Structures
1.
Amino acid sequence: MAKAPRAGRVKTRLSNEYPATVVVELYRCLLQDTLALAASIADTEVAVMAPPEDLEELAALLPAGVIGTPQRGTGLADALSSVFEAFTADRQRRVVAFNSDSPHLPPTVLDDAFAVLLTHDLVAGPTDDGGYYLVGATAPHANLFDPSPLGTSGALAALLANARSKQLTYALTRDWFDVDLASDLARLAEALGRDPSAAPRTAAYLRSWPERDRSQAPRASGSDPA
């Protein structure tokens, strides 16, 4: 799931802390690293679902073989629902949806998510703020995604409650963090300082940041998932 890298439309909470041009370029790096991560998983088909008006602009960023698909509806709940409606309608596919907020996610986590879907209806990856960084399913499920708590600390709890109400089996992958706030970006900078290969484009961009404006460079604090 992605959007065209335009000011005011991507990483809006980071735009409160950093110049819009910086945030747009950061998003571009996050997206490209995420696409490389997805493409590294063996025996998978990679698709980017985006608003129809964004697909032409995004096409220039998509590696060969990556499909661009228009999402339906408005809002995140509709977008997530449209992923599974588009790709699991025949119930013959395991589909894992995630965005560009966790480009440093270990590939083994995605492998684990696909493995979960061999025996469960649903898989989710928890974040430490009560949300989730990925969700996967083998079939579309009406009203699985409640729009009210999405983007809040109650998002994961609401998803799992809806799954239980539909008698869906589910399991969780390991906890991770995504990049929404300046504090998250600082954690990412710290993680990529130790292992830039996890998201090389983003790591290079963050390394160059102090050269442009040292006062606005992300500063690490806290710790990352082990």
Note: Residues 14-216 form a domain with the Spore Coat Polysaccharide Biosynthesis Protein SpsA; Chain A fold (CATH 3.90.550.10).
2.
Amino acid sequence: FTKPLGIKLPPYFDIVHFDQAAAIFNKYPLKFVNCVNSIGNGLYIEDESVVIRPKNGFGGIGGEYIKPTALANVHAFYQRLNPQIQIIGTGGVLTGRDAFEHILCGASMVQVGTTLHKEGISAFERITNELKAIMAEKGYESLEDFRGKLRYID
């Protein structure tokens, strides 16, 4: 197989699972992991209508609701994966600040889903401009200046 190979990961919630998954992923020539897919089987209730949502209202929980979990997964895998495995931060990227946070946690790039669906392709320019403004405010000239540089409080 000669094409780049990557995988989209479910959200992990236990540190031991990050360790076990990373140990397996590091054995293979992966080019990227996508952190994270939506959390399955969320139920949306629309109390103002009788419209049935697809799948009887059951679907993946994503967008802003999954962002804290997505950031934790991006950072945990950034700490554990071989450096040649890039991370795509997915979940809750609504603004340039959200993109900044994913990159700060270690993402090489971000995926925009819910926002793209709501706003269309103009979301990309808006998010990019917001990210550039944050970078200028903080004195960063490139993504590498802050990628994975999340610091801990002692």
Note: The chain has five helices and six strands.
3.
Amino acid sequence: VIVAFRTCLCSALLTLFILTPIEAALNPDSPTILITGSNRGLGLEFARQYAATGWNVIATCRNPRAADALQSLASEYNQVAIEELDVTSDSDVRLVAAAYRGQPIDVLLNNAGIYGTLEKQTLGTFDFEELKRVFDVNTIGALRVSEAFLDNVAASNQKKIVSLGGGMGTMTIGQMFGGHYFMKMSKAAHLSAMGTMQKDVDNTGIIVTMISPGRVDTQLMRDSGWTGKSISAEKSASLVIARIAALEPEMKGRLVMYNGAIMPW
């Protein structure tokens, strides 16, 4: 019995140690960004580049324990805080929002997204459970997170909510080719949701904008089946960061390309 108790106690302590977030020292004199899906690809690169310029970074992902590169980044920059957050989980979002109540967040970056399995969103082989999964992350997730941290953004100096959008969610590009139904639908709904949110927060000074990062060499782009030219996550992140820094009120509710062009949707 004693051995079993010790085993359980050790296991519990180990679990507690693993789940304890890295202690971060957010600088009250520095701007703050919260990024979803920070464990790899563009999300990780955003976290890296913002941290390197002195920003406080609240880097969220579903499984911090498996996010080795993100853990390494947090050990290099003490103003990087890692938080466990699945954008499809109401409880996760509520817990993190409660932990940062009163913390101004200058930029809320909805980066988390999935493409979904191509075969399951092809005419003739639709899997509507896959449709729900894609929508839950790409559309509902961004809406859930944006609503939860609205007060944090409103309390900041920069007041920006940015979602990664793309041409596939527009009528102009999305209708140019077949297939990819669920990704197109989720991104179109995402654009609509963020555009509508902008109308609701117009009197707060908050800018809600969608930015297209381009065709980036990430897992999401590989999941799309794209085999053409792409840009690196490092290059795309730097361009998107420049766009975020240059956001003006006239870009409210718009879809902005990584090169600064406005895309009609």
Note: Residues 3-22 have pLDDT under 50 and may be disordered.
